[in-house]
């Protein structure tokens, strides 16, 4: 039943970096696009980034463009989100998600959380001094 598992969150100072991982035991990433979303209490869940099955196509929300980089290692069945130059406003629970059959909907902005069929439990990122 476990399809997606996030890890790598934690406490980091403004300007620092974290790398999040999304293990996808429920999917063959050779055929699956994966998206990252985040949510702050009291706010709607928002799309952050998405990567195609091959890794050749990506999407980034304007708020993270130039600071975050999404990548994947299909052999490890894992998607990564490298987060640099972190800001306090990046503080959120970060989720990876996908839809069936191939997850490609997240490649087209704006990313729609309601279009996702599968979610991890999330990993908390706190950016604070």
Largest sheet: 7 strands, mixed
Classification by helices and strands: mainly beta
Count the helices. How many?
0
User: Which percent range fits the helix content?
Assistant: under 10%
Q: Determine the N-to-C terminus distance.
A: 38 Å
Strand content: 35-45%
Order of helices and strands: EEEEEEEEEEE
The low-confidence runs, each spanning 5 or more residues with pLDDT under 50, are: none
What is the number of strand segments?
11
Mean pLDDT: 96
Radius of gyration from the CA trace? 13 Å
- Overall shape: it is globular
Characterization of the model:
By secondary structure, the protein is mainly beta. The chain contains no helices and 11 strands. The strands form 2 sheets. Strands 2, 4, 5, 6, 9, 10 and 11 form a 7-stranded mixed beta sheet that branches. It has a 4-stranded antiparallel beta sheet with strand order 1-3-8-7, with no helix packed on it. Strand 5 (46-51) and strand 6 form a beta hairpin. The radius of gyration is 13 Å and the shape is globular. The chain starts with a strand and ends with a strand.
């Amino acid at each position: 039943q476990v399809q997606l598992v996030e890890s790598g969150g934690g406490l980091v100072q403004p300007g620092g970096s974290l790398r999040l991982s999304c293990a996808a035991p429920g999917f063959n990433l050779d055929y699956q696009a994966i998206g990252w979303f985040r949510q702050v209490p009291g706010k709607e869940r928002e799309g952050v980034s998405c990567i195609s099955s091959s890794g050749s196509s990506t999407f980034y929300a304007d708020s993270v463009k130039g600071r975050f980089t999404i990548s994947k290692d299909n052999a490890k069945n894992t998607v990564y989100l490298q987060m640099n130059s972190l800001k306090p406003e990046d503080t959120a629970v970060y989720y990876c998600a996908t839809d069936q059959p191939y997850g490609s909907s997240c490649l087209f902005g704006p990313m729609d959380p309601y279009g996702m069929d599968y979610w991890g439990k999330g990993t908390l990122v706190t950016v604070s001094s």
